[in-house]
């Protein structure tokens, strides 16, 4: 055990921005941090545009099928996830950078981070459960050649969304921000 600690101490003489890690991984993490915010904004802009187009196209009369109803619900979830991520990425990755500062972690931005965490985990999980529902619907159709109608599919999509929001209530209540008074800014 003493040898492992000695080896660990010699490999990690000083802590970097991400703690004690391999120096090559540390350099990569710092490099990626510099471009992540910008890449995220590009991906989110593309994703918001394409999901909005999906919603517009899949809700047209000729395109209304049970599977397209589920795909529309998934597009709505993904759209909300990306809309929530744009301010987060802009502030935490582009505007403030890697350093922990009072501006970066102000009460308002810390509250936004908590809200964003809840929104993204809820919409992402809902999207996954909608994909499971779609797989079940397709499996049942392949086995029986029977399928839900649009109204039944819509009700189940809403049920999945409301159910997942209800299951996330403990997470919502535990996620919070408390103001902290400190004489010096340390993280």
Automatic annotation (TrEMBL):
Segments crossing the lipid bilayer: 35-58, 70-94, 114-141, 153-172
Gene3D superfamilies assigned to the protein according to its UniProt record, in alphabetical order: Rhodopsin 7-helix transmembrane proteins
Subcellular location: Membrane
One GO CC term, this protein: plasma membrane
Keyword Transport among UniProt keywords: no
Pfam families (alphabetical): 7TM_GPCR_Srw
Residue intervals of the G-protein coupled receptors family 1 profile domain: 50-187
Keywords on record: Membrane, Transmembrane, Transmembrane helix
Keyword Transmembrane: yes
InterPro entries attached to this UniProt entry: 7TM_GPCR_serpentine_rcpt_Srw, GPCR_Dmsr-1, GPCR_Rhodpsn_7TM
Superkingdom in the source lineage: Eukaryota
PROSITE patterns assigned to the protein according to its UniProt record, in alphabetical order: G_PROTEIN_RECEP_F1_2 (PS50262)
GO molecular function: G protein-coupled peptide receptor activity
Protein name: G-protein coupled receptors family 1 profile domain-containing protein
Protein species of origin: Littorina saxatilis
Lineage per the UniProt record: Eukaryota, Metazoa, Spiralia, Lophotrochozoa, Mollusca
């Amino acid at each position: 055990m003493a040898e492992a600690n000695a080896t660990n101490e010699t490999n990690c003489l000083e802590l970097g921005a991400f703690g004690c890690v391999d120096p090559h991984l540390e350099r990569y993490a710092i490099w990626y941090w510099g471009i992540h915010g910008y890449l995220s904004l590009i991906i989110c802009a593309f994703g918001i545009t394409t999901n909005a187009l999906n919603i517009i196209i899949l809700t047209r009369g000729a395109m209304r099928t049970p599977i397209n109803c589920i795909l529309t619900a998934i597009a709505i979830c993904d759209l909300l996830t990306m809309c929530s991520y744009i301010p987060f990425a802009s502030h935490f990755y582009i505007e403030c950078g890697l350093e922990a500062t009072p501006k970066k972690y102000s009460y308002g931005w810390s509250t936004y981070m908590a809200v964003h965490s809840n929104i993204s985990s809820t919409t992402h999980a809902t999207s996954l459960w909608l994909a499971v529902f779609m797989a079940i619907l397709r499996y049942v159709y392949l086995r029986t050649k029977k399928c839900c109608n649009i109204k039944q599919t819509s009700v189940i999509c809403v049920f999945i969304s409301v159910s997942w929001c209800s299951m996330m209530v403990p997470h919502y209540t535990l996620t919070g921000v408390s103001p902290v008074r400190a004489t010096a800014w340390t993280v």
